[in-house]
Amino acid sequence: MPARFIKFSNRHLACGLLLSCAVAQAASPEWESPPISHKDVQAYFDARELYTRVLPPPPAADSATDRDDVAALQARQQASAERREQALADSRWLYDRFAPALGVAALRRDGLPALVQLLNRSLKQVGAPAFAAKAAFPRARPYQRLTGLHVCGKPDPDGTRRTSYPSGHAAYGWTVALVLARVAPERAPQLLARAAEYADSRLVCGMHFPSDIEAGRQLATAVVAQLDGHAEFQRDVERARAELGAAAAPPR
Question: Best exposed site among 58, 71, 89, 208 by fewest CB in 10 Å?
């Protein structure tokens, strides 16, 4: 397992035990609120090498595409104070940030345990190839290369060893939206729009370039497409759909 992935897992566990970690700029969002450890969650199968078939290398530094990335990032840095606050919240949390798009008050295990378990396993599925790609493509983050950026919160303490490509937040956000769209297809437009906004928050936060965001989307799409052909995933989707329907049904 790559060293970066081990460091991420240990830090994520520590933040699960200490709620105060959630208010710092994390390397990855807390999936659930309140945060807990997800070290025992199992992916559906090993998809770590998927990124080699899905993602091209990131743009070379100072290439035309890289310069376009920088210009687009700097444009998004002009976001309003309200949009920056939303981006900061997006950087900290995941499931609850998608609850309004799903049409529920909160997306938590105490109310929707089967749905949360489905999301947890799906995020483990995308996390392995995402962090394998980060190890293979050591692209510097925007705040490591550029001066004068607005960065949400504080960059994580080991930020000089974090890599920008692909965006883990974007991969997670798109995975959540795509899985939820399979559970509640009637909410797909709202969920996909929220995923795009969630990923865009990484530009507002000065944490990623647009090509990092797009790579996260591509990887999430490929992962969920693989899961569509997996029988256990399909059974979990059906359980989550039934649970969500029962939760939404009016009391008798």
Answer: 71
Angle, alpha carbons 98-102-103 (nearest 5°): 115
pTM, two decimals, is 0.87
Which residue type, as a one-letter code, is found at position 38?
A: H
Going from N- to C-terminal start, the domains of the chain cover 3-248
For residues 205 and 149, the answer to whether their CB atoms sit within 8 Å is: no
Q: Which of 97, 139, 141, 208 is catalytic?
A: 208
Q: Which of the 8 DSSP states describes residue 187? A: G
Q: Which CATH number fits domain 3-248: 3.40.50.720, 1.20.144.10, 3.30.930.10, 1.10.3300.10?
A: 1.20.144.10
Q: Is 38 in the active site?
A: no
- Residues 6+ away with beta carbon under 8 Å from 143: 149, 151, 155, 159, 206, 207
230 is catalytic: no
pLDDT per residue of the chain (252 residues) written in tens, 0 to 9: 333 333 333 333 333 333 333 333 447 899 999 999 999 999 999 999 999 999 999 999 999 999 999 999 999 999 999 999 999 999 999 999 999 999 999 999 999 999 999 999 999 999 999 999 999 999 999 999 999 898 987 665 545 567 899 999 999 999 999 999 999 999 999 999 999 999 999 999 999 999 999 999 999 999 999 999 999 999 999 999 999 999 876 666
List 169, 182, 187, 217, catalytic entry: 169
